[in-house]
Predict the structure of Cytidine deaminase-like protein.
Amino acid sequence: MAFFQHLLPGIALLALLSWASASAHLHPPSQHGLSINDVPWHRREHWMRVANEATYADGEPCPQAPFGSAIVNTTSDELICVAANAVGRTGDPTMHGEMTAIRACHEVLSKRGLSPPEILRAWRDFSLYTNGEPCPMCMSAIRWAGFKEIVYGTSIETIAKGGRNQIYIPSSDILAKSYSMGHMTLMLGGILANETDPFFAHQFNESAPCPAGCQRKDTPGKRVSSCQPKPEWREIIQQREPEELLDSGRAYREPSPVNTFWPWQRLS
Ligand SMILES: *[C@@H]1O[C@H](CO)[C@@H](O)[C@H](O)[C@H]1NC(C)=O
Ligand SMILES: *[C@@H]1O[C@H](CO)[C@@H](O)[C@H](O)[C@H]1NC(C)=O
Ligand SMILES: *[C@@H]1O[C@H](CO)[C@@H](O)[C@H](O)[C@H]1NC(C)=O
């Protein structure tokens, strides 16, 4: 009996883990058209576009590391902040798009006068939209924060197949293995992947088309061509931006020492 008493929690844990890995295949990767957590589908597509286009804020439309994130209050549909990968710009290797967004939103919430305990509670109201599936570092931060939802576009697999080095641990594995935390995070993947995939397809593949506002050119001293901004890229991007998207930058027009880009400001 004593033997079984020790065994039972182990069996329960195994059952939970196998359920978690099976459930990753239960739903289609993109639950297109479903209003999950009371979020209408078109708003998910909207926020994914905001995350995707956060990368334009770096001052060029075809960066080498085109990872962008937007953090949104899930119930009120309010944008808290957006940010893009800042590793190249800062030299800080932890500044992936999601980490940069968490820091930028932390600053927004501090400026709103929230205390540290209130900020720690706030993440549970939020959805993090990111154009590329979070790496293990970012997915762990997302789980530690306790986000209500993580929504991504392009999968790690697709990014890796496009030639970029990745730590090949699917974010759903981090989600399954953080089961003991006292909060759940809903994960939706492949959202608007038709628009996020092209951002990751061109850096290592000379045959791939360039994103909007870019054209392929030879680079002096390099043996392969790369996508480079057309002189009129700002006009091209602005023509594509719905008015609402530009308005959504209100949340964080103030410049910040951490998050050095304020996309909507620079685009205007
Ligand atoms: C998120 O939105 C809900 C509904 O409007 C609101 O009650 C809550 O305070 C918001 N959370 C934060 C941290 O802004
Ligand atoms: C991508 O797919 C969505 C439907 O999920 C569609 O609304 C959108 O227009 C497509 N984008 C492009 C650039 O074709
Ligand atoms: C490179 O891009 C071309 C054109 O989009 C595509 O057909 C091909 O599959 C890509 N190669 C790889 C390895 O992804």
Summary: Residues 161-162, 205, 207-208 surround 2-acetamido-2-deoxy-beta-D-glucopyranose (ligand 3) (CB under 6 Å). The chain has twelve helices and seven strands. The chain has a mean pLDDT of 82. The radius of gyration is 20 Å.
